[in-house]
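Folding Query — how this chain folds
Tokens — whole-number codes for backbone shape
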Amino acid sequence: AVRLLDVDNQYWATSQYEQLTVLIESSRRDSDQLGRARALADRGGVENLLKAIERVESIPENSPLFATARRTLVELWEEFWVLGLDALDDGDGDTALEVARNLPPGLEYQSKAQDLRELALAVTRAQDGGIADLEAAIIQVQALPSSRPLYEKAQRLSRYWQLEVQDVQRLQLA
């Protein structure tokens, strides 16, 4: 950009130089936003991922890094989704429910969010550990149709809780 100032052409030396300078500053600012978003996402957790997504979404469409921002946004939403699934696996119904509430409203995540919400509620209910709670959670996850995105996970949870019911019954007999 600095070399443009040495050009004999006044147009190139002034307006093109200014345009190029603005473009470079904008790219640096947006690159910084992407870097900060990635750092937040790397810390993990619902709040950090949502803040990272917000930063990436703030990059304007006219930015030279807009395409990179869109790809990063897709990656961050996928990380957010996986965070919800991991929370289910860890028995953390509250985190899974928070992820379900914050998934974007588009078609891609709509059914996933509904399933995640149902399974999170069932996990929360099953955490009480009583036979009635476990059986209610089993009924809730078994109601998920086989065409749903989290059907297999629901079946695994159901089998796990059925074993827990058997264990609780054995303990009560002992």
